[in-house]
Structures are given as structure tokens and as C-alpha cells.
Amino acid sequence: MYHLIRRILFLFDAEKVHYFSMNSLRLILSVPFFKKIVQRHCSFPSTPVRLLNLEFKNIVGLGAGFDKNAIYLTELESVGFGFVEIGTVTPLPQEGNEKPRLFRLPKDKALINRMGFNNEGAATISSRLANWRKKNPTSRLIIGGNIGKNKITPNEDAWKDYQICFEALYNHVDYFVVNVSSPNTPGLRALQEKDSLRKIFKALQEKNHSHKAILLKIAPDLSLEQIDDIIKLSEEINLDGIIISNTTINRQGLQSNENTITQIGAGGISGLPLQKRSSELIQYVFQKTNGKLFIMGSGGIFSGADAKEKIHAGASLIQVWTGFVYEGPTIVKKILQQLN
């Protein structure tokens, strides 16, 4: 059924369809009868897992960028996600890059985005999270806070932006992710160098009074030498874990028309083209650290088989994003069924 709906949705602008689809789901869930049907149709019993000093009702989460402003938490919980990562959140509100900035590559089961950290800012999102927590006191949904810097902030002051977001969201999210790996903010990926990471994490750990987990999200385009530097630095900066990986700027091996890709222009690719590289990096980090560094796997997960690949490589939790777009609201149920 969803594949038929998807064919229609894919005829329209990707970013507009994103909000149309989620607002439509919200409307459906506003009717208690339909909400029960959706929850029944999308849920699958799963044994909770305890990781990062948190209890996740299942291992399937939604990656950052889908619900940037923490607007759709109820809807995403209703379709079965064990955790949702909101953001990327910046201190000041940010419009992001010029539209259109989200594109589909159906032949590759992929997306290209150059969103540019569009979000409503730390203060507004913090307030929204507080209200959601108050209205949903029994919810078991784990919420992660993905934080970044404003485009106008120079890299030498980036640590201040991360600290501002950290403090604003601290009482409302369960774990944090430092995003220095998006290709869509000029100069951001330079912050993956060890001296910049040291400064950012030192600033955050100084404010981490109840020791919430802080993860680092890395780009798949890093060299093994750069990853080795991060691994060596992980103990010094009290890194709780790593997310592998963000989108890639590598365009090799795509099946889509070359002219189409050229016309789309810059942006990070997510989905199937990222699957192999992210799994290889997960395995590399897992083996290099003897399994001592927590890994969250992301990139090209569409099925239970894809999830198993990440888990066998060394991931303890997985995140979907592009898979949710292509497979629809039952993706969590299907993955959990196939993992069972």
C-alpha cells in the first residue's frame, strides 16, 4: 500500500512532501480510533535494551534531520521508533540553505540534501521539548539532541555554540550528539580534527553534571588515519560513543542519470550508496577498539538484513532515515520482525 502512495508522493517536491506526510499522520493520530490502528499496525514486541545508562524499548531509532524542531515526537513514537534524535539544533534560529535542497535518487534508493542546519534555534526547541515531556510523562521514547554551530560562527568559536545548545537542551534530552560532520555548513567538517574536538568536548564535559552520554557523529569520508586520531582522542575527551555515519559527498557508483546528479549540485548522499562504507567503518572502529567504544550504526538501512549487517559489524543501536522515506511507517516493525 505504501509503495503506491510513495509513487504519488515522489511526484512532488521532497521537502514539501516531508511536512505534508508528517502533518497528515498527525491528523490521523488525532482520532483515537485511528491512532490505535496505526500503533497496532506499526508495533512489534521487542525486548528492551539498556545502553548508555538508558533503557531503549527497541534498538531502531530515527536519525537527526528528520524531526529537526522536535515537532513530530508523538507521531514517530506511534510508528514504533525506540528513540528519535532531534536537530541538528543551533544556538540561533537558522533558515538553512536556499530551496530546493532535498532531492530523491530513486534508482539508487538515496537522497541528496544540503539543508544547512535549518532549525528554530535552541531556546524554542528546548521549550517545545519541555512541553512535550510535561504532556507525555509516561512515554518511553528516548530523545537524543543533535547539536551544531551556526553558519555565521567562526570555527575558533564553535565550542561556544555547542556549549550553548548543550545547556539549553540538557534537561530535556536523554543523550547528545556532536555533529561536526555535515557537508552542508561551510568549514564544519574541519572540526573533526583532534584539536577542535578536544576543545568542544572539554567545554561540554564541564557542563555535564549528571553525566549524560555524549556521542560524536562522523563523516564516512574520513581517512582511516583521521579515524585513528578520533579513537586515540576518545578516552581523553570522555567520548561515550560514536555514530557511523553521516552523509557522504562521494558520488561514485551511482545509478542515477549523471546529468540529473550534476543539476542537483552539492549535498550529502544518504541511503543505499552509503550502506557498504558505513558498515566497513563500523567494523573498523569496533575491531580497533576491541568493542570497547559504543557504536550506533547508520547508513543504508532498509530491512532487517541491513540492520543485522550493522549489528554484526559492531553496532549496538541503529538509526534509519532514508529507509523511512522509501519503506514507509512500518519500517521499524519490519526490521524488528526480521531481527527476531
| Helix amount | 40-55%
- Rounded to the nearest angstrom, the radius of gyration is 19 Å
Characterize the main sheet: 8 strands, parallel, barrel
* Total of DSSP H or I helical runs spanning 4+ residues: 13
Q: How much β-strand is present in the residues?
A: 15-25%
Q: SSE string, helix = H, strand = E?
A: HHHEEEHEEEHEHEHEHEHEHEHEHH
Question: Spans with pLDDT under 50 lasting ≥5 residues?
Answer: none
Question: How many independent structural domains?
Answer: 1
Shape descriptor reads globular
Count of DSSP E strands?
13
Give the CATH class.
Alpha Beta
The CATH topology annotation reads as TIM Barrel
- For the termini, the CA-CA separation is 24 Å
The CATH homologous superfamily is named: Aldolase class I
| Spatial order of the strands forming the largest sheet | 3-4-7-8-9-10-12-13
Name the average pLDDT: 97
Secondary-structure arrangement, i.e. CATH architecture: Alpha-Beta Barrel
Structural class: alpha/beta
Entry keywords:
41% helix, alpha/beta, 17% strand, globular, 340 residues, three-stranded antiparallel beta sheet, eight-stranded parallel β-barrel, TIM Barrel, single chain
Quick take:
The chain has helices spanning 2-9, 14-29, 32-42, 73-78, 122-135, 158-169, 194-207, 224-236, 258-264, 275-288, 304-313, 322-327, 331-339; strands at 49-51, 54-56, 60-62, 83-89, 102-105, 110-113, 142-147, 175-179, 213-218, 241-244, 268-271, 294-298, 317-320.
